[in-house]
């Protein structure tokens, strides 16, 4: 006859102490395994999604989305070091929220930024209501009940941080939360940095393409051909210090026997200077073709239009003159530009200046002019300061004396060969020193 069952018909299982211990250990191992699987799942999701995109914003959005989803918070944000500024301020790049409530516009202030950059370790704040807690007043003002932040570190350098705000259901952040976010931050830091570098490279490539396009546009604004007035030989060369420059030159036929010749130098460098150059070129051409016949009046109008079309800090130096190929004279205005050079046979080199202000300084500026003869065999040189101020490795300038010597010693050369010889001399003088400024040289020779 078998044993009687306990009242109720169910047998009660009794475990030994060792069995209970084994069960507890097994449960702990299962929990740890589940935690590891959760971490692997998050990292796998991030890695899988990232493999299909290199967009930095997409990467950051994915990371914050997974943090909100798996750690259970109201908001997550990534703050990256702003490498474009003078300091290493951390600035918000991406936020993500799963709440239906109004989005909390919380920004890490200088205190928390400074703390993270100084201590370089996780920050967990659960008891925000404590008035003595770090950043208590700031966090409460933005409805933040608790906070968990982990630095992003790449090759020993802090590149940003991941911050989680307000654990859901009024819970507190745990050590497991900190551990999981630390793993995410550790694995994500290099991915984020790689995406940031890729984004910067893409922007640089795009900028280089824009610069090449701008250079082509700028070159198209300059004369396509060098004119050949009867009895004269002309040449010009311009070498920009960057892809696009701020120097300007032009040949404009204002009449059967009259040619406007000019060389200008825009304040600044690069794209802004190139845009101003286009502005100046349009103004000069308009006034030269349709403006007043008097050169001083034309310059006054050029100055007024340039002044009204630019910001106060912008200006341009301009050497502007009219070559009369019938009467063989050159009438000019020098508006703050380098002194032109006139070399006539049997005479000392003459410096061409009229003592006028640069274009764009004052709206009502007035200009004076001078006229010089172009005798047979004479050479007129108009240039920008990139020629005379070219530096060698010792910081010495090429200077006016070397320019004059080069022009005098090669005075019998045709204009093109003479221009090339000056540029060769400047390059030989500068050696390995970089070119800091645009260089332009225009040569006008009257045949003997």
Q: Strand fraction band?
A: 15-25%
Number of strands: 15
Domain count: the total is 2
List low-pLDDT spans: 99-105
**Strand-and-helix sequence, N→C?**
HHEEHEHEEHEEEHHEEEEEEHHHE
User: Which class best fits the helix and strand makeup?
Assistant: alpha+beta
Q: Helical content, roughly?
A: 40-55%
The name of the CATH architecture of the largest domain is 4-Layer Sandwich
> What would CATH call the homologous superfamily of the largest domain?
PPM-type phosphatase domain
End-to-end gap: 143 Å
Name the CATH class of the largest domain.
Answer: Alpha Beta
CATH topological fold name of the largest domain: Phosphatase 2c, domain 1
Shape field: elongated
Q: Your description of this structure?
A:
The protein is α+β, with helices and mostly antiparallel strands. The protein folds into 2 domains: 34-198, GAF domain (Beta-Lactamase), CATH 3.30.450.40; 223-446, PPM-type phosphatase domain (Phosphatase 2c, domain 1), CATH 3.60.40. 40% of the residues lie in helices and 23% in strands. It has helices spanning 17-50, 56-72, 110-119, 136-141, 175-221, 270-290, 295-308, 385-388, 399-409, 415-430; strands spanning 73-81, 90-97, 123-125, 147-154, 157-167, 232-239, 247-255, 258-266, 316-324, 329-335, 340-343, 350-352, 370-373, 379-383, 439-446. It has a 5-stranded antiparallel sheet with strand order 2-1-5-4-3. A 5-stranded antiparallel sheet has the order 6-15-14-11-12. A hairpin with a 4-residue loop joins strand 9 and strand 10 (329-335). The longest helix is centred in the middle third of the chain and has 47 residues, at 175-221. The N and C termini lie far apart (143 Å). Residues 99-105 have low confidence and may be disordered.
